[in-house]
Amino acid sequence: MNKKHNHIENQYAKYFLLFCLFFVLGCSNTKYLPEGDLLYIGGSVKVKDSLIKKKERKALEKELEDLLRPKPNKQIFGLRPKLWIYNFAGEPKKQKGTRYWLRNKVGEPPVLFSKVDLDYNVSVLRNFTENRGYFKTRVSADSTVRNKRVTAEYTVIPKKQYIIKSVTFPDDSLAMSRIIGRSSRRSLLKVGKPYDLDIIKAERERIDARLKEKGYFYFNPDYLLAQVDSSKGDHEVKVRIIIKPDTPPKALTAYKINNIFVYPNYSLSNDSAVYRKRDITQYKDFTIIDTTETFKPRIYDRTIYFKKGDLYNRKDHNLTLNRFVNLGTFSFVKNEFKLSDSIPNALDSYYYLTLLPKKFIRVEVLGKTNSASYTGTEVNVNWNNRNLFKGAELFTVSVFGGADFQLGGVNKGKNIYKLGAETSLTWPRFITPFNIEGNSEYVPRTKATLRYEYQKRTQLYALNSFNTSFGYLWKENIRKEHQLNVIDVTYVSPNHVTPEYLEDIEEDAALGKVIEKQLIFGPTYSYTYTNTMQKRRKNTIYFNGELDLAGNLTGLVTGANIKKNDTIKIFGVPFSQYVKIRSDFRHYLKLGKESELASRLIVGAGFAYGNSNTLPTSKQFVVGGTNSIRAFRARTLGPGSYVIPPTTNNNYTPDQSADLKLEFNTEYRAKLFSIVRGAVFLDAGNIWLLNADPDKPGAEISKDFMKQIAVGAGAGLRFDLSFLILRTDLAIPLRNPSLPDGQRWVIDDINLGSSTWRKDNLILNIAIGYPF
């Protein structure tokens, strides 16, 4: 009883000390204020209007509060740690050292009430509400002082919002006016909608963009005037869009493209250079000025979308610039349009292109660790030629090598070494028997690759792996990307298999699959859609779908059927025949300026048939690890409820894989301070075999597969170093499908005080980048 009493006292003491710490942190922030000044801790806006719905009123209040200046010191859980650090560091004696760094880099100076201009904020709030159609709005301001802290309160009393009654467009005889009139159905100004100055500005930009597609190069939105008449009607306005009378004549003129000049080897140092006749090449509609014949002229025909006599339009203008940039051979791309001196109402187009170095070498040195307790390093040396055949082809030769060591554990001494080379050639166009022309701003590419890798597992075996592929990569736009490998061939052959490993295969037949010869060939296709680059959207998504078809046509032609012992071999190796699909869907919900909820769903399935009864080991699905279900080590989970039996031979870490996969992850991410971000997460999923395996009871998919879902949770820190993100995640299993049915939830058994429990269940993941 006495021990229990002491424990309770200790707990109260901890809470009291924590409360005192918070109190000190809060109070000390006002101790260092200048004499007679106050700490400004924020402002609030109250909109008083019974006609506005509560939801809309709250949204308007939030918008108005975001306009208030200055912003108060940043808070975390009601405290202002950056301000406390600033005060704690004190005035540094010199502009370097720890004190200077804490005060000026980590800390944040106090936001003083003397810097708050209430009248200025009142005018900003009034202008904003009136621009939204709440004319004659009244705004007042007041402040409240408590313990040297002050808040500002603003009261906004808007009048009834004005509604658009009618919208009219220019009706004069100008050709430009007719274009504007024909596009009126796309107008952003809608009758019956509230008056909004921002919408009027957007409408002017919409009209300008439309005119830019019709040759009006010199026009801009400032030449449009929106006349608003609120004199008639009950809180209604008439909006009339007109072309300003003082608009210059050249802005009212549509221009065509005349001459097109290209400088493919341009630099500022030769800006005033005099070119010889032999340096100038005429190719179709292009005049190419190049002293070194850097590119074959046909590359300009595929990149420049303007042709002589075309009406100028902004779409082709931007499309051309983007395609030059996406060729990957230029460090700088500049475009100018000048009035033609030979024909009226025409523009000469000039393209100035500054080259990147044609040849370069990149060396990468990587350090890595994995959940099997292997630590190692890898070195990659890449030699590149950006213009191999003078058609902006990228030729790359890579040599790589690495080693993984396990200094302790079951695989101590069984190190992994790898060495290999890869060469690839990428053409900035489709190479096909028939002509394919796209109108995307992204250059389509054809890529051929040849790769060899030798992997040696000390005391066990070695693998030779060959791969060659030929395919296409193209983007429809910034959101949609495709990759199609028409040919993708992989051949794996073992050698130097040790007697020790052969003996282990007799105990565990699954080890034999690792050293089986493999021949995989067939097309693969991948589609990616994402809008995550749109930072202002509250909801963004990412989707990747993959389709892998191996040996299907060959199996059909040869009639291969492994079930009838009719396995077809090519060069003495049975070829793999299967269909595999995988989808990865991610959703990002922005909850605040520095916080979001990120979720991912992965579904995958593979079906072997014809010449194969199982998927190749390298093509099967796995779960667990730093980017998967983080409460379980990589490849240790599943399939299904299968339990890895304790064997006398414990020389290998688990390596579980299967034909089906279902995985769901979600995590809340928020900025804590400076470069540190925090996360709490929940992971769930498993893998299953499509067909029963007598050596793996419980591994087959069934109607009760949901009872075999593993669940893990945890928390982590992310250190955003700009050039990379270092991630640490600490996870614990909540549900383990390998436990007996009815005992799989392990929440009740959590015992952080037990060193044995921590060793068996707490999983620390260290990785680079976010998991998804």
Q: Which structural class matches the secondary elements?
A: alpha+beta
Low-confidence stretches: 1-27
Strand content: 35-45%
Largest sheet: 17 strands, antiparallel
Which overall shape is indicated by the principal axes computed on the Cα atoms?
Answer: globular
Distance between the termini: 50 Å
Question: Mean of the pLDDT scores?
Answer: 88
Instruction: Give the helix tally.
Output: 13
Question: How many beta-strand runs?
Answer: 30
- What is the helix fraction of residues, given as a range? 10-25%
Structural Rg: 34 Å
Please explain how this structure is put together.
This protein has 772 residues and is α+β, with helices and mostly antiparallel strands. The chain is 19% helix and 37% strand. The chain is built from 13 helices and 30 strands. The strands form five sheets. The chain has a 17-stranded antiparallel sheet that branches. A five-stranded mixed sheet has the order 8-9-7-11-10. A three-stranded mixed sheet has the order 1-3-2. A hairpin with a 2-residue loop joins strand 8 (280-283) and strand 9 (286-289). It is globular. The two termini are 50 Å apart.
